[in-house]
Target: tRNA (guanine-N(7)-)-methyltransferase
Amino acid sequence: MTDPLTIRRLYGRAKGHKLRAGQEELLEHLLPKVSVPEGPLDARTLFGDDRPLEFEIGFGAGEHLAAQAEARPDHGFIGCEPFLNGVVGALAKIDDRELGNVRVHMGDALDVLERLPDASLERLYLLHPDPWPKARHAKRRMVNHGPLDLIAAKLKPGGEFRLGTDDPVYCRWSMMVMNQRRDFEWQAKTAADFLARPADWPQTRYEAKARRKGHEVWYFRYIRR
Ligand SMILES: C[S@@+](CC[C@H](N)C(=O)[O-])C[C@H]1O[C@@H](n2cnc3c(N)ncnc32)[C@H](O)[C@@H]1O
Model:
């Protein structure tokens, strides 16, 4: 893990609010306890047993991560988010709800994903990824064959990849890219299947903001073949 001071320098001051004392405390005392360790990872190194694993890329302030972890205490959750204020938001939820089944990485999700064994994840969540709306930045989108190859390798056969977006360009792009893949099967049989949020898909902060603006939101569920 990049140390908190470096992270603060990189992300905290540039993009976030100044931290309150309680937040500094969470960063200093809780983060080291729940941080994803260095080196190769599996359920045992992360949680001490062979529990099923779920993974969230870019958890924002952790609303979805915490709600899923609370709903399935016997599963292990790994959440990755580079922004300090988001990490502090997730830590506050982990602390309030006494969640013992969450591990956090303050940095790039792909660095953690690479260190997991192949076919080790039950689910992977990518909710409202940064849209990179300009065509010349399309290569930076998380929905691209490079990251998707890694996601496909780490999901178990029968595991689920969930993608949510309110961005029409990202929605079309994702449909196009995912349609080129033989290793994922889209679960939507009708338009209604991806226009309504499934009951076990807690709303993220970003989604709530999109809804307030009157945006449509699309919910994609793919099963790893
Ligand atoms: C638009 S926000 C959505 C946040 C949250 N998922 C939500 O729906 O409220 C996208 C998030 O992805 C994070 N992100 C971007 N690239 C990432 C990466 N490589 N690894 C982990 N998080 C990443 C950003 O820091 C940002 O917080």
